[in-house]
Amino acid sequence: xxxxxxxxxxxxxxxxxxxxxxxxxxxxxxxxxxxxxxxxxxxxxxxxxxxxxxxxxxxxxxxxxxxxxxxxxxxxxxxxxxxxxxxxxxxxxxxxxxxxxxxxxxxxxxxxxxxxxxxxxx
Length: 122
Fold this sequence. Notes:
By secondary structure, this protein is an alpha/beta fold. The chain has 5 helices and 5 strands. The protein is globular.
């Protein structure tokens, strides 16, 4: 397990949190949050978080709104969107402006995340 990397995964679906944690905690330190608001608290209280992956469709704060607020706390935090849909103009704009590194489509393939993480750590 790579203990230098701590991923915050935010999703409002408990099963998605469970599956993500189950798969990726074998390779990385993983913390999960069930909403954007909980995710923001985790970022404030957990300095070891090194990157964020968030679902796009969540109540109260969608993925982009959550990332904008997260970047107010940690401006250089690499962020990714995970969505069950194709890329939207909103996600495309967030990539172009550097708000997110890229987006992943559900279900997230383990090797895609690993490659993205290793790119960040070069």
